[in-house]
Amino acid sequence: MANNSEFYRGKRKKTAPALIATIIILAVIAFAVMLFYGLQKYIVITNSGLHLEIPFLQDDIAKPVQSDDGEVVQQSFEPVNAQLEIGQADYSNIKAVAGENLDAVKLVYVPASSVTASGVESYLSKSPDATGVLLDVKTVTGMLVWDSQADIAKGYGTAGTVDLKSIVSSLKEQDKYVAVRMCCFVDNTLVSRYTQLALKTTAGQAYSDSNGTWLDPTNATVKSYILSLCSELSKMGVDEIVLLGMRLPEASGLEFAFSSSAAVKPTPVTAVSGFGISVTRAMRSSSTKMSVQLTSSAALQNGSDEVTGQSADILLKVFDRVYCSAESASAADTVTKGADYVKLGEAKMRIVPMCSGQAPTTDCWVLME
Protein backbone atom coordinates (compact mmCIF):
# COMPACT_ATOMS: atom_id res chain seq x y z
CA MET A 1 0.00 0.00 0.00
CA ALA A 2 1.37 3.35 -0.95
CA ASN A 3 2.17 5.75 1.86
CA ASN A 4 -0.12 8.81 2.00
CA SER A 5 2.01 11.66 3.16
CA GLU A 6 -0.88 14.14 3.27
CA PHE A 7 -2.70 14.51 6.55
CA TYR A 8 -5.61 16.80 7.52
CA ARG A 9 -4.50 19.62 9.74
CA GLY A 10 -7.14 21.79 11.40
CA LYS A 11 -6.69 25.56 11.26
CA ARG A 12 -5.53 27.15 14.46
CA LYS A 13 -7.64 30.08 15.56
CA LYS A 14 -5.52 33.13 16.15
CA THR A 15 -7.42 34.21 19.26
CA ALA A 16 -4.55 34.41 21.70
CA PRO A 17 -2.91 37.59 20.32
CA ALA A 18 -6.30 39.36 19.99
CA LEU A 19 -7.26 38.40 23.53
CA ILE A 20 -3.97 39.66 24.92
CA ALA A 21 -4.34 42.96 23.04
CA THR A 22 -7.89 43.40 24.37
CA ILE A 23 -6.78 42.77 27.95
CA ILE A 24 -3.97 45.30 27.60
CA ILE A 25 -6.32 47.95 26.18
CA LEU A 26 -8.87 47.40 28.97
CA ALA A 27 -6.11 47.58 31.57
CA VAL A 28 -4.85 50.87 30.13
CA ILE A 29 -8.38 52.31 30.12
CA ALA A 30 -8.97 51.19 33.71
CA PHE A 31 -5.66 52.70 34.80
CA ALA A 32 -6.47 55.98 33.02
CA VAL A 33 -9.85 56.20 34.75
CA MET A 34 -8.30 55.48 38.15
CA LEU A 35 -5.58 58.04 37.47
CA PHE A 36 -8.13 60.67 36.41
CA TYR A 37 -10.22 60.36 39.56
CA GLY A 38 -7.25 59.79 41.82
CA LEU A 39 -5.45 62.97 40.73
CA GLN A 40 -8.47 65.28 40.93
CA LYS A 41 -7.66 66.29 44.50
CA TYR A 42 -4.24 67.51 43.36
CA ILE A 43 -5.65 69.91 40.73
CA VAL A 44 -4.77 73.51 41.56
CA ILE A 45 -6.67 76.41 40.02
CA THR A 46 -4.71 79.60 39.39
CA ASN A 47 -5.19 82.71 37.27
CA SER A 48 -3.11 81.07 34.55
CA GLY A 49 -5.25 77.93 34.43
CA LEU A 50 -5.18 74.40 35.89
CA HIS A 51 -2.15 72.35 36.88
CA LEU A 52 -1.27 69.38 39.05
CA GLU A 53 0.67 69.55 42.29
CA ILE A 54 1.45 65.98 43.35
CA PRO A 55 3.08 65.79 46.81
CA PHE A 56 5.60 63.02 46.04
CA LEU A 57 6.79 64.91 42.96
CA GLN A 58 7.32 68.15 44.90
CA ASP A 59 10.58 69.03 46.64
CA ASP A 60 10.37 68.59 50.39
CA ILE A 61 12.28 71.81 50.82
CA ALA A 62 10.68 74.99 49.55
CA LYS A 63 12.63 76.72 46.82
CA PRO A 64 14.30 80.02 47.66
CA VAL A 65 13.05 83.16 45.92
CA GLN A 66 14.44 86.64 45.56
CA SER A 67 12.63 89.44 47.39
CA ASP A 68 12.09 92.96 46.04
CA ASP A 69 15.28 94.24 47.72
CA GLY A 70 17.41 91.51 46.16
CA GLU A 71 17.69 89.32 49.27
CA VAL A 72 17.22 85.60 48.79
CA VAL A 73 14.59 84.27 51.17
CA GLN A 74 13.13 80.88 51.82
CA GLN A 75 9.45 80.41 51.03
CA SER A 76 7.31 78.38 53.33
CA PHE A 77 3.68 77.44 52.90
CA GLU A 78 1.19 76.36 55.51
CA PRO A 79 -0.93 73.35 54.56
CA VAL A 80 -4.58 74.20 53.96
CA ASN A 81 -7.48 71.81 54.36
CA ALA A 82 -9.94 73.27 51.84
CA GLN A 83 -13.60 72.26 51.82
CA LEU A 84 -16.27 73.08 49.26
CA GLU A 85 -19.32 74.57 50.94
CA ILE A 86 -22.54 75.09 48.98
CA GLY A 87 -24.57 77.89 50.53
CA GLN A 88 -27.99 79.41 50.06
CA ALA A 89 -28.60 81.46 46.92
CA ASP A 90 -28.14 85.19 47.56
CA TYR A 91 -30.07 87.52 45.27
CA SER A 92 -29.59 90.66 47.37
CA ASN A 93 -26.79 91.96 45.15
CA ILE A 94 -28.44 91.19 41.83
CA LYS A 95 -28.14 94.01 39.31
CA ALA A 96 -31.19 96.24 38.75
CA VAL A 97 -32.28 95.91 35.11
CA ALA A 98 -35.94 96.97 35.02
CA GLY A 99 -38.10 100.05 35.50
CA GLU A 100 -36.66 102.71 33.23
CA ASN A 101 -38.55 104.86 30.69
CA LEU A 102 -42.03 104.01 31.98
CA ASP A 103 -45.12 106.09 31.30
CA ALA A 104 -47.98 106.65 33.72
CA VAL A 105 -50.75 104.03 33.73
CA LYS A 106 -54.30 104.65 34.93
CA LEU A 107 -56.16 101.40 34.64
CA VAL A 108 -59.61 100.07 35.35
CA TYR A 109 -59.78 96.51 36.64
CA VAL A 110 -61.93 94.02 34.73
CA PRO A 111 -62.69 90.70 36.51
CA ALA A 112 -62.31 87.44 34.62
CA SER A 113 -66.06 86.93 34.33
CA SER A 114 -66.37 90.22 32.41
CA VAL A 115 -63.46 89.76 30.01
CA THR A 116 -65.55 89.86 26.86
CA ALA A 117 -65.74 92.50 24.15
CA SER A 118 -68.88 94.07 25.64
CA GLY A 119 -67.80 93.59 29.25
CA VAL A 120 -64.49 95.41 28.81
CA GLU A 121 -66.18 98.34 27.04
CA SER A 122 -68.69 98.57 29.88
CA TYR A 123 -65.96 98.93 32.50
CA LEU A 124 -64.09 101.49 30.44
CA SER A 125 -67.22 103.62 30.03
CA LYS A 126 -67.56 103.83 33.83
CA SER A 127 -64.02 105.19 34.23
CA PRO A 128 -63.45 108.01 31.73
CA ASP A 129 -60.10 108.94 33.33
CA ALA A 130 -58.66 105.49 32.73
CA THR A 131 -56.03 105.18 30.01
CA GLY A 132 -56.26 101.41 29.88
CA VAL A 133 -57.43 98.20 31.50
CA LEU A 134 -56.17 95.48 33.83
CA LEU A 135 -57.80 92.26 32.68
CA ASP A 136 -57.95 89.27 35.03
CA VAL A 137 -57.09 86.33 32.76
CA LYS A 138 -56.10 83.61 35.28
CA THR A 139 -57.63 83.45 38.75
CA VAL A 140 -57.12 81.18 41.76
CA THR A 141 -59.40 78.63 40.10
CA GLY A 142 -56.58 77.97 37.65
CA MET A 143 -58.87 78.33 34.64
CA LEU A 144 -57.67 80.62 31.88
CA VAL A 145 -59.97 83.15 30.25
CA TRP A 146 -58.58 82.63 26.76
CA ASP A 147 -58.26 79.60 24.54
CA SER A 148 -54.62 78.94 25.34
CA GLN A 149 -52.58 76.67 23.12
CA ALA A 150 -49.99 75.93 25.81
CA ASP A 151 -49.34 72.20 26.15
CA ILE A 152 -50.34 71.99 29.80
CA ALA A 153 -53.44 74.14 29.27
CA LYS A 154 -54.61 71.81 26.49
CA GLY A 155 -53.50 68.62 28.20
CA TYR A 156 -55.10 69.34 31.57
CA GLY A 157 -58.15 71.28 30.42
CA THR A 158 -57.39 74.71 31.87
CA ALA A 159 -57.90 76.67 28.63
CA GLY A 160 -60.87 79.00 28.28
CA THR A 161 -62.92 80.04 25.26
CA VAL A 162 -62.60 83.83 24.96
CA ASP A 163 -60.94 85.27 21.86
CA LEU A 164 -58.61 87.44 23.91
CA LYS A 165 -56.45 88.43 20.95
CA SER A 166 -59.34 90.23 19.25
CA ILE A 167 -60.18 92.07 22.49
CA VAL A 168 -56.57 93.19 22.85
CA SER A 169 -56.47 94.32 19.22
CA SER A 170 -59.68 96.32 19.64
CA LEU A 171 -58.35 98.07 22.74
CA LYS A 172 -55.07 98.89 21.03
CA GLU A 173 -57.00 100.44 18.14
CA GLN A 174 -58.61 102.72 20.72
CA ASP A 175 -55.13 103.63 21.99
CA LYS A 176 -55.80 101.93 25.32
CA TYR A 177 -53.05 100.42 27.44
CA VAL A 178 -53.63 96.68 27.94
CA ALA A 179 -52.37 95.00 31.10
CA VAL A 180 -53.37 91.50 32.16
CA ARG A 181 -53.14 89.79 35.54
CA MET A 182 -52.38 86.11 36.16
CA CYS A 183 -52.44 84.23 39.44
CA CYS A 184 -49.22 82.21 39.70
CA PHE A 185 -49.08 79.80 42.60
CA VAL A 186 -52.70 79.34 43.67
CA ASP A 187 -54.25 77.03 41.09
CA ASN A 188 -57.04 74.73 42.21
CA THR A 189 -57.68 73.12 38.83
CA LEU A 190 -54.13 72.28 37.81
CA VAL A 191 -53.17 70.90 41.23
CA SER A 192 -56.21 68.62 41.26
CA ARG A 193 -55.33 67.25 37.82
CA TYR A 194 -51.54 67.28 38.00
CA THR A 195 -50.80 66.49 41.63
CA GLN A 196 -47.01 66.32 41.17
CA LEU A 197 -46.97 70.12 40.86
CA ALA A 198 -48.51 70.73 44.28
CA LEU A 199 -46.70 72.58 47.04
CA LYS A 200 -46.29 69.96 49.73
CA THR A 201 -45.60 70.14 53.43
CA THR A 202 -42.77 68.11 54.94
CA ALA A 203 -45.46 65.55 55.83
CA GLY A 204 -46.09 65.06 52.11
CA GLN A 205 -49.53 66.70 52.03
CA ALA A 206 -50.56 69.13 49.27
CA TYR A 207 -50.98 72.52 50.92
CA SER A 208 -54.24 74.45 50.69
CA ASP A 209 -55.77 77.32 52.64
CA SER A 210 -58.58 79.85 52.29
CA ASN A 211 -56.98 81.12 49.08
CA GLY A 212 -56.96 77.71 47.42
CA THR A 213 -54.47 74.94 46.60
CA TRP A 214 -50.88 75.97 45.95
CA LEU A 215 -48.32 75.13 43.28
CA ASP A 216 -44.64 74.57 44.09
CA PRO A 217 -42.72 77.69 42.94
CA THR A 218 -39.49 75.70 42.60
CA ASN A 219 -40.99 73.10 40.28
CA ALA A 220 -39.54 73.36 36.76
CA THR A 221 -42.86 72.43 35.12
CA VAL A 222 -44.70 75.17 37.03
CA LYS A 223 -42.15 77.71 35.86
CA SER A 224 -42.37 76.45 32.27
CA TYR A 225 -46.18 76.65 32.35
CA ILE A 226 -46.32 80.23 33.62
CA LEU A 227 -43.63 81.27 31.17
CA SER A 228 -45.48 79.69 28.23
CA LEU A 229 -48.61 81.66 29.19
CA CYS A 230 -46.61 84.90 29.45
CA SER A 231 -45.10 84.29 26.03
CA GLU A 232 -48.51 83.60 24.53
CA LEU A 233 -49.99 86.79 26.00
CA SER A 234 -47.02 88.82 24.81
CA LYS A 235 -47.54 87.62 21.24
CA MET A 236 -51.14 88.85 21.42
CA GLY A 237 -49.84 92.39 21.86
CA VAL A 238 -50.41 92.74 25.60
CA ASP A 239 -48.49 95.74 26.99
CA GLU A 240 -47.93 94.44 30.52
CA ILE A 241 -48.31 91.23 32.52
CA VAL A 242 -48.90 91.43 36.28
CA LEU A 243 -48.16 88.28 38.29
CA LEU A 244 -50.50 87.87 41.25
CA GLY A 245 -49.88 85.37 44.03
CA MET A 246 -46.18 85.06 43.28
CA ARG A 247 -45.50 84.21 46.89
CA LEU A 248 -45.74 81.46 49.49
CA PRO A 249 -48.65 81.04 51.92
CA GLU A 250 -48.87 83.14 55.07
CA ALA A 251 -48.11 80.10 57.20
CA SER A 252 -45.49 81.11 59.73
CA GLY A 253 -43.64 78.16 61.25
CA LEU A 254 -44.72 75.69 58.57
CA GLU A 255 -41.99 74.16 56.41
CA PHE A 256 -42.50 73.04 52.84
CA ALA A 257 -40.84 70.19 50.95
CA PHE A 258 -39.81 71.97 47.76
CA SER A 259 -39.17 69.87 44.68
CA SER A 260 -36.14 71.97 43.77
CA SER A 261 -33.04 70.03 42.70
CA ALA A 262 -30.79 72.60 44.40
CA ALA A 263 -28.19 71.24 46.82
CA VAL A 264 -29.48 73.55 49.54
CA LYS A 265 -33.17 73.80 50.43
CA PRO A 266 -34.53 77.18 49.27
CA THR A 267 -35.87 79.72 51.72
CA PRO A 268 -39.20 81.43 50.94
CA VAL A 269 -37.32 84.49 49.67
CA THR A 270 -34.94 82.53 47.41
CA ALA A 271 -37.80 80.36 46.11
CA VAL A 272 -39.99 83.32 45.14
CA SER A 273 -37.15 85.57 43.97
CA GLY A 274 -35.57 82.78 41.94
CA PHE A 275 -38.87 82.19 40.13
CA GLY A 276 -39.32 85.89 39.41
CA ILE A 277 -35.77 86.32 38.16
CA SER A 278 -36.07 83.33 35.81
CA VAL A 279 -39.38 84.48 34.31
CA THR A 280 -38.37 88.12 33.81
CA ARG A 281 -35.02 87.09 32.34
CA ALA A 282 -36.77 84.84 29.81
CA MET A 283 -39.22 87.63 28.87
CA ARG A 284 -36.64 90.40 28.62
CA SER A 285 -36.32 90.13 24.86
CA SER A 286 -40.04 90.85 24.40
CA SER A 287 -41.61 94.31 24.42
CA THR A 288 -44.07 93.30 27.14
CA LYS A 289 -43.45 94.78 30.57
CA MET A 290 -43.35 92.35 33.48
CA SER A 291 -44.78 93.36 36.85
CA VAL A 292 -45.78 91.76 40.13
CA GLN A 293 -48.47 92.37 42.72
CA LEU A 294 -47.29 92.52 46.32
CA THR A 295 -49.78 91.20 48.84
CA SER A 296 -47.44 91.55 51.80
CA SER A 297 -47.35 94.89 53.60
CA ALA A 298 -44.11 93.80 55.29
CA ALA A 299 -42.42 93.44 51.91
CA LEU A 300 -43.05 97.10 51.10
CA GLN A 301 -42.34 98.44 54.58
CA ASN A 302 -39.29 96.35 55.47
CA GLY A 303 -38.04 95.37 52.04
CA SER A 304 -38.67 91.66 52.53
CA ASP A 305 -41.19 89.23 54.02
CA GLU A 306 -39.45 86.07 55.25
CA VAL A 307 -42.73 84.12 55.45
CA THR A 308 -44.32 84.79 52.05
CA GLY A 309 -40.95 85.25 50.36
CA GLN A 310 -41.86 88.53 48.68
CA SER A 311 -38.98 91.00 48.66
CA ALA A 312 -39.60 94.49 47.28
CA ASP A 313 -35.86 95.10 47.34
CA ILE A 314 -35.19 92.20 44.95
CA LEU A 315 -38.38 92.22 42.87
CA LEU A 316 -38.10 95.91 41.99
CA LYS A 317 -34.74 95.16 40.40
CA VAL A 318 -36.18 92.73 37.85
CA PHE A 319 -39.87 93.66 37.50
CA ASP A 320 -40.92 96.91 35.85
CA ARG A 321 -43.69 97.72 38.31
CA VAL A 322 -45.00 96.63 41.68
CA TYR A 323 -48.76 96.77 42.24
CA CYS A 324 -50.19 96.84 45.76
CA SER A 325 -53.55 97.41 47.45
CA ALA A 326 -54.04 100.82 49.06
CA GLU A 327 -56.68 103.24 50.25
CA SER A 328 -57.27 106.16 47.91
CA ALA A 329 -56.48 108.69 50.63
CA SER A 330 -53.15 107.05 51.53
CA ALA A 331 -52.05 105.91 48.07
CA ALA A 332 -49.29 108.53 47.93
CA ASP A 333 -47.84 107.16 51.19
CA THR A 334 -47.72 103.70 49.62
CA VAL A 335 -45.62 105.06 46.76
CA THR A 336 -43.30 106.79 49.23
CA LYS A 337 -42.77 103.57 51.21
CA GLY A 338 -41.68 101.71 48.11
CA ALA A 339 -39.41 104.48 46.85
CA ASP A 340 -36.48 103.28 48.99
CA TYR A 341 -36.25 100.08 46.93
CA VAL A 342 -36.43 101.71 43.50
CA LYS A 343 -32.98 101.61 41.89
CA LEU A 344 -33.91 102.58 38.32
CA GLY A 345 -36.62 104.91 37.05
CA GLU A 346 -39.06 106.87 39.19
CA ALA A 347 -41.06 105.49 42.10
CA LYS A 348 -44.20 107.32 40.97
CA MET A 349 -44.10 105.35 37.71
CA ARG A 350 -43.18 102.02 39.29
CA ILE A 351 -45.29 101.73 42.45
CA VAL A 352 -48.94 101.37 41.43
CA PRO A 353 -51.66 101.66 44.12
CA MET A 354 -54.77 99.53 43.58
CA CYS A 355 -57.73 101.38 45.07
CA SER A 356 -61.48 100.84 45.34
CA GLY A 357 -64.20 103.49 45.19
CA GLN A 358 -62.34 106.35 43.60
CA ALA A 359 -59.05 106.90 41.86
CA PRO A 360 -56.21 108.39 43.94
CA THR A 361 -54.18 111.46 43.01
CA THR A 362 -51.01 109.48 42.27
CA ASP A 363 -49.53 109.34 38.76
CA CYS A 364 -50.32 105.64 38.39
CA TRP A 365 -53.27 103.70 39.74
CA VAL A 366 -55.69 100.82 39.24
CA LEU A 367 -59.35 101.39 40.03
CA MET A 368 -60.73 98.16 41.44
CA GLU A 369 -64.40 97.16 41.71
Please describe what this structure looks like.
The protein is of the alpha/beta class and 369 residues long. It folds into 2 domains: 15-74, no CATH class; 106-367, Glycosidases (TIM Barrel, Alpha-Beta Barrel). The protein has helices at 15-38, 117-126, 151-155, 164-173, 188-193, 220-235, 268-283, 297-302, 312-318, 331-339, 347-350, and strands spanning 43-46, 49-52, 64-66, 72-74, 106-110, 132-138, 177-183, 208-209, 212-213, 240-244, 289-294, 321-325, 351-355, 365-367. The strands form 4 sheets. It has an 8-stranded parallel barrel, surrounded by 5 helices. α6 (220-235) packs parallel to α7 (268-283). The model has no long low-confidence stretch (mean pLDDT 87).
Topology:
Layout lengths: L14 H24 L4 E4 L2 E4 L11 E3 L5 E3 L31 E5 L6 H10 L5 E7 L12 H5 L8 H10 L3 E7 L4 H6 L14 E2 L2 E2 L6 H16 L4 E5 L23 H16 L5 E6 L2 H6 L9 H7 L2 E5 L5 H9 L7 H4 E5 L9 E3 L2
Parallel strand pairs: 5-6, 5-14, 6-7, 7-10, 10-11, 11-12, 12-13, 13-14
Antiparallel strand pairs: 1-2, 3-4, 8-9
Helix pairs in contact: 6-7
Strand content: 15-25%
Corresponding CATH architecture of the largest domain: Alpha-Beta Barrel
Helix count, per DSSP? Answer: 11
Shape: elongated
**Low-pLDDT segments:** none
- The level-1 CATH class of the largest domain: Alpha Beta
Task: State the secondary-structure class.
Answer: alpha/beta
Largest sheet: 8 strands, parallel, barrel
List the strand order in the largest sheet: 5-6-7-10-11-12-13-14
How would you state the average pLDDT, rounded? 87
The CATH superfamily of the largest domain appears as Glycosidases
According to DSSP, the number of beta strands is 14
Here the CATH topology of the largest domain equals: TIM Barrel
Would you list the SSEs in sequence order as H and E? Answer: HEEEEEHEHHEHEEHEHEHHEHHEE
Distance between the termini: 124 Å
Helical proportion, percent range: 25-40%
- Alpha-carbon Rg, integer: 32 Å
Any idea how many domains?
Answer: 2
